[in-house]
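FORM 7B: Structural annotation worksheet

SECTION A. Query
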Amino acid sequence: MKILHTADWHIGKVLHKHSLEDEMQLFFEWLLDTIEAEKVDLLLVSGDIFDIANPSANDRKTYYQVLTKLAAMQIRVIITGGNHDSIGVLNAPKEILNAINIDVVGGATQPITDELILLEHEPDGQSLVVAAVPFLRDKDLRSLSTDKAFDSRTQAIRAGITAHYKTLHEASNSLYQGIPTLAMGHLFAIGSLTSESERDIHIGNAAAISSEAFGTLFGYVALGHIHRPQVIGNNPLVRYSGSPIPLSFSEKKDTKSVVIVELKNNTFEEPRVIPVPKARELKKISGSYEEVEAKLKVYSPDFPLPSFVELEVKEDAFSNLILSNLESLTEQYRQDSTFKILKSRPIFKTGVKDTSDLFVAGENIEDLSPIDVFKKRIESEEITADQTSQLLNAFTELLEIVQTESI
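SECTION B. Predicted structure
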């Protein structure tokens, strides 16, 4: 049985007001071709199908068009919800999709055993149990552990997630004894390397989950949530596939990929990583104004889609002339056919600062996450490191409550 693991599609993602729809379409075309060429039997998508909880009609259309093509290929598909996804949006067509061999688990289920999916591969008689675990919210974890039993909320989160996987492992052994198991997950594992584009829910060492919470219980663990492809705990069978396209400039050097793992004779073989062709380049050009201007003149990318460029101009002293020239330079290349300047950032070593300098010129508040804005605010205050940590923890907790209730 051949399995393809992907995650974090983020359909509808916008980067600095520019849609990433074109590269997503190219990825989906490539994915379908790869599934056919590799003769894939099972596709796993580990969360964050959409970028926002209430996706547009066009983004939903893109999603259903992909599922329709997958159904026509007669392969099995299992999709789990992520922290960006609405449980209701994903689960709404659940019964219809199930009829065409597409299983969707938008949120934690009751009973928990509904997250166990038994697959039987007729060509070789191989069977597999998939623990399709979606992103677990606080309310999902309280049924397995209570905050009152722990010194902190983060300890309760860790214990709740660990208990969830342990319960599924025990249930699988009881119901499907002797059949190999695979787990999906959308969470933050200890040791993960993050980028700027992951939302700050359950991210950070405080709420990180050890790979031992599931790595010793399941033959393969297909993770989502972290956008950089990587192995966890030095175990190649516990890994993030990463997002299929770059979702922020911090991912500009990442090689995007999907993972293929084969199940033979009840054993998962060493996974293969297949790089996703780069549709466009995310490029950062930095230096003095003259250096940046010169680099732009010779920059000639060769990709299917126009590259997105970030400018960083570094000068010794503040200058309104530099700001004006930079704005003109950005406008000059706005309609270029080979690349587009999405973001420009001047940095001056000396100059007058006021409250507005919490945000550098060219930086828009809509481009930042709520936690980024809050960090900038507390950086302007004279407070201790301990106070900063307490404020960040409190803000992150409140942010999660607000975002969870809006989904």
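SECTION C. Observations
The longest strand covers residues 339-350. The chain has two domains: 2-275, 282-405.

SECTION D. Sign-off
Analyst initials: ____
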